[in-house]
Write the structure tokens for this entry.
Amino acid sequence: MRSSIAAIAAILALSTPAISTAAPAKSAAANSAEPSIETMKRLVKELSSDAFEGRAPGTAGEEKTLALLAAEFGKLGLKPGNKGSWFQDVPLVEITAKNVSALSFSGGKTPVTAAYGPEMVIGTRTTEKHIDLKNSPIVFVGYGINAPEKGWNDYAGLDVKGKTVVILVNDPDYETQGLTGPFNGRAMTYYGRWTYKYEEAARQGAAAAIIVHDTVPAAYGWNVVQSSWTGAQHVADSADGNAGQSSAIGWVTKDKAAALFASAGLDLDAQMAAAKQKGFKAVPLTGVTANVSFDNELRKHSSKNVVALLPGKTRPDEYVLYSAHWDHLGHCQAAPDGDDICNGAVDNATGTAALVALAEANVKAGPTDRSQVFLAVTGEESGLLGSDYYGKNPVFPFARTVGGVNMDALSVAGLARNVVVIGKGKSQLDAYLDRALAAQGRVATTEPTPEKGYYYRSDHFSFAKHGLPMLYFEGGEDLVKGGTTAGMAAAEDYTKNRYHGPKDEYDPNWDWTGVLADLKLYYGVGRELATTSDWPNWVEGDEFRTIRDKDRAGK
């Protein structure tokens, strides 16, 4: 999930008509029904209660979540979507690091030690029961990018086998104000995501990969890293135990990284500036080595995606997809009051409840020509694991899936004059949203902080990689009550005090007007997709267009 703090200037530039909360026009949506806020309240409150223990995969919280969703979809008359089952197995390995040593760096001017939790986090994607990184030479590889199509390779001429690579988060040009540059300027590419950094380090054979945390380019503070990367972690299972992965992966605070570089006679800020330039050459921290050890408690299990089907009446073999992730972090870093359950009320009990509320509204309105699929996926917080598995093993072929919407963390700050579209301009689905917005007198705006890479941080990305057009938007921050000042304050409060923490809890005082308006948008877009005979695509030149065209041509 992502949390957003929109740039005020981007919102102030809007010219917004009067807002209407009426249902979308019936020209494309045919019959119409209003999603129920009472259903939303009931389900968000239950899903985020302490009884669900933060909905971590492979726990009693998962079992309760699956049972609840199957019961809710069943009561509505939906069909189990996966060959008579509500569930799709997603093979995972739960890895819990135990007896974690400090991460120590020796051989420099001064020994440097980073403590597990407040100064560094460490783990592995392999299924080795013990990791012991000893005297591993350290190399600073800048942004850790190997992009032949851009003529950029931070690993050029390097052999990092057995070595520890230190990597910067985001892209080299993230500070650019415009959207032009070797990596799209201010807009993050996938090369900027931490998932890519570790993937590329593993391809290069690095024994360990450590990312330097920096709040602005990471888009969140160290508290988020600490709560998300300690405790049980989940990875996709594989026959070889993920043997191709680096032995250790993690993060280190910028202050500790600066101390490490100083110990090697280098200035971190100067090296960070150099890494932004094309032609940057990796810098060995000569004589300095990394050491860390930890045990791994392993448990293989099958987590589950929930797949519910509302069959179409005339073209049931064509599908519209609604997605949201049901999982959260489970037990996590405790708050000062001792509360250690990350309840995930906003993230993403709201999106999960929205799947049920939208299914309910569509049942009331009557069947559409095309079938509608309501997919609640697991493992989003661990790196989009459930949606990635569905993408590689779709229950309903992507060539026969028209497109869809993804819902992640609905805004409970109140009604806004705008919505922020993540990836605006990438697909023809924008036109569907614009029609639904017009009925409400609201507008769609582009991401004011594209450097944060939100397009790659929720489940729609897993489907887009396989060519499926997916729409993902968030509640705007130009609130009807209080404007951008109130909207910014609400977003900052959530990011600082609740996001990926124990205080993301249900609040009876939430303002649900924005949730209702946004639900109507999802309903309008989905309903139109399910009634039209059109096949919306990515725009010409988009990175996913070729995949989609090939898939549709071979249907």
